[in-house]
Amino acid sequence: MTSISHHRGGSALAIVAGTALLASAFVTAPAAAQTSDLVNRATLRVCADPADMPLSSEKGEGFENKIAELLAKDLGVPLAYTWFPDATGFYRMTLGIKRCDVKLGVPQGADPFLNTNAFMRSTAVLMVKKGSPLEGVDTLSDEKLKGKKIGVVAGTPPASHLLKNGLMPQAKPYSLTVDRRYFSPVEEMIGDIQSGAVDAGVFWGPIAGYFAKKAGDIVSTPLVKEKGSPSLIYRYTFGVRPGEDNWKHRLNDFIAKNQSDINKILNDYNVPLVDEQDKPIAVSQ
User: For the domain 2-120+235-268, what is the CATH superfamily, name and number?
Assistant: First the structure.
């Protein structure tokens, strides 16, 4: 496994880099596919954050780790990681310098990545303590939230909705950019909900669902009914270097073929999955 020294700061995905690349053969089992000659043929080289549960961890405990294992099996090659915190410099220090060939969790449209098709569509959630009068609230425009203290990550789309609904004056902000090896805003928010320091909290569902389930006394409700801009529902893709279209197509084939298994992995981590009609997806085990 490759390891890179860790630096964290600023916002993720800030460095624009990427070139058009020549194509060559990427040998898979059972057939060969064409891809860039900068993609390693013998090993699935994944770029990942070493401490970003439930997405990824150096111990291989995150859902991106489990999807990577499924992908390596599909390709018929061993799996190796390049570790770097998912913040400023991530692309430049991983894909950009050819240390690895794919990142398994990239928002659709995020520069400078070339995006595959989405493997996950998910949403922000509202977290409250079990038995709270706010349990069952599923929009930020609900009158029950008026006058309540709500936790929210500063500078995110949910914060815009709190502002629109007049909820920001009493809101408690949490940090957007942190080093997850040392700080966890979602766990801080859940602790504040449990103690009563805030009445509710809004957080990105794939992270919040996992920690809410782990806490045991927290209910997380997907905010799929929220209207207006910005959207609280997002598509997540695999990210590769610009120009590596054949590699992207090979990954798209994997996603299409294994979507059911991917959904089961995500469901194990309590990720709220949403279909194209903004309806929650029920995952059969």
Answer: Periplasmic binding protein-like II (3.40.190.10)
